[in-house]
Write a structure and sequence with these properties.
alpha/beta; Rossmann fold; seven-stranded parallel beta sheet; six-stranded parallel beta sheet; 13 strands; 43% helix
Length: 382
């Protein structure tokens, strides 16, 4: 392996406040910086994550990609790799994988992909451009990492990747970062939430992927039985207007708070009584990991990642995809049984501490980096 600190480029599509960037932030927190010099970059669009990297002393860069197909960006990334003597590029999400991956190969850098979820374009040829770029990009990396067993199986089935070319490294969090010494009442006061009543929280990008319309439909059923409940939705995204319209149409807008993006997640989780994530598809969701680390029980849809994290009946409930009536039923059960949700919350936190700790995740990624840097550009996982 090369002697001295190795220069690693972490490359994502944007610097938006989304799960993929949170995975890399957790990784940066726990990497051995005496061995690795890290630079974080995005293909286009800045965002608040850049400020978080900079607060950690990490240089950031935006490659200014102009459109979905922008061949000029390949040259800019190659120039950057040579200028900063980048030894390894760690890319995630499609544009970073294809354009960043091709640039890394052409520039002679080693390449790692993190595949984080079961995106439909990876198997559906009707998403022709994305499907083609995704399939082509899978021939680039020295190493591929999957965030969950379901993601691993999905990539093998639909992307032409051999099973011995993928390593499982689950997304993970720092459990203690999701706790606070403040009381529930103090957290609710800071968030301008009423001190009494039950709060169901969701932290998610407001996108169809997250299935939030089904949560609102479930909420309309729940509120007919338990009108004291507040549904607190943290995040922003393209579906915000339609979700607000749906809440109005369902007659529940007074019980639903759209809080926008917030960084004070420990306080939000402490103020909450239950976490809900009815996603259409997932990888291993960081928001769910954080909620469970805080000690919240969770109700989730039966999709990739969710079902790996939540043990049905033990740390929460798993409900069939899009079944908002059963989702409502499970919410009402948790609302009415405080000992049950407290037991589930304890079980949820224990599982994260024991199995999804970011310290262990960083050690596994360091093993991947070291493996790649010891091998030639054409190597594959043995």
């Amino acid at each position: 392996m090369k002697v001295g600190r190795q220069n690693i480029l972490l490359l994502n599509t944007t610097f938006k406040e989304e799960g993929p960037n949170k995975v890399l932030l957790e990784l940066v927190h726990h990497l051995d910086h005496s061995r690795y010099r890290v630079i974080a970059a995005c293909m286009h669009e800045g965002g608040p994550i850049a400020d978080l990297y900079q607060s950690l002393g990490i240089k950031t860069h935006n490659f200014g990609m102009k459109r979905f197909i922008d061949l000029m960006v390949i040259g800019r990334i190659m120039k950057f790799i040579k200028e900063f003597d980048i030894h390894l590029v760690h890319a995630q999400l499609l544009r970073a994988e294809f354009f960043g991956g091709l640039a890394a190969r052409l520039a002679g850098a080693k390449l790692v992909f993190s595949i984080l979820n079961t995106d439909p374009y990876r198997k559906k040829k009707r998403h022709l451009a994305r499907y083609a770029l995704s399939r082509l990009s899978m021939s680039f990396p020295t190493y591929i990492v999957a965030s969950s067993m379901d993601v691993r199986d999905y990539i093998i089935a639909h992307q032409g990747v051999k099973s011995n070319n993928i390593k499982l490294i689950p997304n993970s969090v720092s459990p203690d970062e999701y706790t606070t010494d403040l009381s529930k009442a103090e957290c609710r006061e800071r968030l301008n939430l009423r001190k009494e009543g039950f709060i169901v929280t969701t932290v998610a990008r407001l996108h169809k992927q997250k299935g939030l319309s089904y949560m609102l439909k479930a909420a309309s059923h729940v509120l007919k039985v338990q009108p004291h409940i507040t549904f607190y939705i943290v995040g922003n995204g393209p579906e915000e207007r339609s979700l607000k319209s749906l809440a109005f149409e369902l007659g529940i807008k007074e019980h639903v708070i759209f809080a926008g993006w917030r960084s004070d997640l420990p306080e939000i989780y402490k103020a909450s009584d239950l976490f809900c994530l009815p996603s259409i598809y997932e990888g291993l969701p960081m928001a769910l990991l954080g909620a469970m680390a805080s000690g919240l029980s969770a109700i989730v849809s039966n999709v990739s990642g969710n079902r790996e994290l939540v043990d049905d009946g033990e740390s929460g409930f798993v409900v069939p995809l899009k079944d908002y009536k059963l989702l409502a039923n499970r919410i009402l059960r948790v609302v009415s049984d405080k000992p049950l949700r407290e037991r589930m919350g304890v079980s949820a936190r224990r599982k994260i501490i024991e199995q999804y700790n970011a310290v262990s995740m960083a050690k596994e990624y360091q093993r991947v980096y070291d493996y790649c840097l010891e091998r030639n550009a054409e190597s594959r996982i043995p």
